[in-house]
Amino acid sequence: MENNISILVVDDDQITRQTLSMSLEDDYNTFTAENGREALEILGREEIDLVLSDLDMPTMSGLELLAEINNLENSLPVIFITGQGTIETAVQAMKMGAYDYITKPVNVDRLMLVIEKTLENKRLKEENIFLKKRIKESQPDLNLVGNSPEMRRITELATQIGATKATVLIEGESGTGKELITNVIHYSSPVAHGPFIKVNCSAFAEGVLESELFGHEKGAFTGAVSTKKGRFELADGGTLFLDEIGDMPMSIQVKMLRFLQEKTFERVGGSKTFKVDIRIISATNKNLEQLVKEEKFREDLYYRLRVVKLEMPPLRRRREDIRPLVENYIRKFSDLHGKPISGITDEVLQLMKDYNWPGNIRELINCIESAVVMSRSGVIDIESIPEYLTYKTVDIDTDMEGGLLQQLERNAITEVLNETGGDKTKTAKRLGIGLRTLYRKIEKYGLED
């Protein structure tokens, strides 16, 4: 007996119900119900894998039972037993989601084959759902955090572009999230389950980059001891992401242009022509139009790459996204480092909103991780953040242990604190010192509230 498989037999005729149950009990766990209501009660308390039901029953028909089963959280495969006069109803049941039907009188051997086939189909569906879940879990974070008009526009465009196989060029400063938007486009595309190959064009010397992209044949150059597939071949059926495309040497730009025109290429040192089906997404932190004017980038290649163009805005142009970004990464790094951080002070959040973030989101992420690690109070406060976020001016501190200079400094801090109503951010700005420096001096001179 396959004790892990349970079948529920539903039939208002006691003899039929018992006969079917006895026919199956050597191979499966069986449960019986004489009507649909009793069947639903059993389904509510037992782990059932398959339902074998009569189609024509009083109180609740087979179709009504099927509708109820379809509404369950875990829908089950249903096989119906029908007489010759209700075959049309059985066909209707199939359209409603029933797996199969058996006509009366029941041939037990055929019934066993149908059950095995149904259970195998159920197993494959569950396995497929599990694999899709694993694939989704293995994908990078695709959440584009932010509610600014800029990010709403980018999100809408990425979704629209993702449904196609168009070649995409993404421009933006370093750290603005160009690779993240590439992930969104790929995983929203018709080739989402295909390969997703990434290569940074600035990370390789000219000769090495050509081999990385197009592959090479054995003996093509010194050290080529075997044939190697390039990124174009590895990306066949999926997406190739060319990061820092603005750093691609002119000699390779020629081969790149040919590929975009003909979808063909040859490996380094080879004569065989390869044809692949891939989507090209490229990104750069440079102004390609300016490079074209300076004749440092091919104009024809630029227009081939720029079928669709996306520009990732710098963080300073969407400051309203700083709060949700900060809160998102506080949660992320709190979990990662096992530190329960409840939030961030208004003072520090304002500093982050005022800062220009030349390194954009990448710099913000690093800052938040550092602050989470350095926090001692369970809150991101002024003592947690990197010093560079406070105003960088000459520190008026002195090594003197006492004397007139320190007295003047203490008086100046006290006076400005009174003028600003105790607002430390305004006080630090007025004094031309960093906020953290101000806190040290307040503690040093005993000026706490």
| Shape, per Cα inertia axes | flat
Trace the largest sheet across and list its strands: 2-1-3-4-5
Question: In percent, how helical is the residue content?
Answer: 40-55%
In terms of DSSP E residues, the strand content is 5-15%
Based on the model shown, name its key terms.
Rossmann fold, 5-stranded parallel beta sheet, 18 helices, alpha/beta, 4 domains, 14 strands, 449 residues, Helicase, Ruva Protein, domain 3
Question: Any overview of this molecule?
Answer:
This protein is α/β, with parallel strands linked by helices and 449 residues long. The protein has four domains: 2-135, Rossmann fold (3-Layer(aba) Sandwich); 149-313, P-loop containing nucleotide triphosphate hydrolases (Rossmann fold), CATH 3.40.50; 317-389, Orthogonal Bundle (Helicase, Ruva Protein, domain 3); 404-444, Homeodomain-like (Arc Repressor Mutant, subunit A). It contains 18 helices and 14 strands. The protein has helices at 14-24, 36-45, 62-70, 87-95, 108-138, 149-162, 178-187, 206-214, 231-234, 250-262, 288-293, 299-305, 322-337, 346-354, 360-374, 404-419, 424-431, 435-444; strands spanning 2-10, 28-33, 50-54, 78-82, 100-103, 168-172, 196-200, 239-243, 264-266, 273-275, 279-284, 308-312, 343-344, 379-380. Strands 2-1-3-4-5 form a five-stranded parallel beta sheet, with helices on both faces. Strand 4, helix 4 and strand 5 form a beta-alpha-beta unit. Helix 16 (404-419) packs across helix 17.
Quick structural summary:
This protein has 449 residues and is of the alpha/beta class. Helices cover 46% and strands 14% of the residues.
